[in-house]
Amino acid sequence: MENIQQIGNRRGQRSRQEILEAASRVMSSYGYAGTSMSALVEATGIPKSAIYHHFGSKAGLLAEVMAEGAHGFFLAMRDAHRDPPQSASPRERLGWYLGRTGEVFVHREEFLRLLLMIVMGDQAVEAPEAMQTVIKVRDEGRDYMRVMIKSAFATEGDAVATAVADELAHFGMVGFDGAFISLQSGDGKPMAEYMAQLTDAMVALGEASAARHRATQG
């Protein structure tokens, strides 16, 4: 039979996960500043004392919510990008990558909405650990974008493909940011349509960039 300590540990772990899931839902709807401890207690049914026991403070809770969200987001990204097409045009390869990434964005809506709220809010002072996670996510996201672009233009050779990826990585992030905000605003267009248009724009820019770099090398 399980002893009392084992049962208590399992209950504690379950309570911690329940708090994280509820906090993610509430904070992604109302923001960090707009989420009171009372609202979290109401959403979880778990006493305020238990929340403080697990996370120490509301800032500590936000830091854990963002850390767990980032972990899940990048696991989903790695899974979505398995087995990319090898023999395809730059448009087909980049379209595949951006389409798969758009699907991840749709299914990780709570995490990304909260991330953007933190970026546009004042949580850098109130919750510095959470802000560090946001910075890490943005940096890793740009790295992912570089990989996608470089893969799409691989036939141009490593040097040109790398240069194109470095040149367009930030633009690609801007495209995703805008598409996600539009999706949240209920503008009426699906993510897949935005990704198809972003693919067209990035391939046109990438081809022009590749031509410039080829000329420089020549």
From TrEMBL:
Gene3D superfamilies: Tetracycline Repressor, domain 2 (1.10.357.10)
Entry protein name: TetR family transcriptional regulator
Signal sequence annotation: none
Residue ranges of every copy of the HTH tetR-type domain listed in the record: 13-73
GO MF entries: DNA-binding transcription factor activity; transcription cis-regulatory region binding
Highest taxon above the source species: Bacteria
DNA-binding region: 36-55
Organism: Pandoraea aquatica
Keywords: DNA-binding
One Pfam family in the UniProt entry: TetR_N
